[in-house]
Amino acid sequence: MISWQQTGMIIAILLIVLGPRKLPKVTKEIGKTLGSIKKETQEIKDQVDITKEIK
To answer: For this chain's UniProt record, which GO biological process terms are given (predicted)?
Structure first.
């Protein structure tokens, strides 16, 4: 898990590299991607649970 200090450091670096105009768009896309990954991971876990119940 990433701490708040590490998150702050990452945001500061992104702000320097991308600039203040691009940062909101990039963070929004990162959030969407992470949400999608979380959803897919949960679906895989659900499928594994169903398979275990069948056996």
So the answer is: protein transport
Largest CA distance in the chain: 54
What separation in angstroms does the CA of 12 have from each of 2, 4, 23, 47, 49?
Answer: 15, 12, 10, 39, 41
Q: What is the pTM of this model?
A: 0.61
Helix axes 23-54, 4-18, angle to 10 degrees: 130
Would you kindly state where each structural domain of the chain is located, as residue ranges?
Answer: 4-54
Mean pLDDT per 10-residue section of the chain, whose length is 55 residues: 87 88 88 94 91 79
CB atoms within 10 A of CB 18: 14
CA angle in degrees (0–180, nearest 5) for 1-49-52: 130
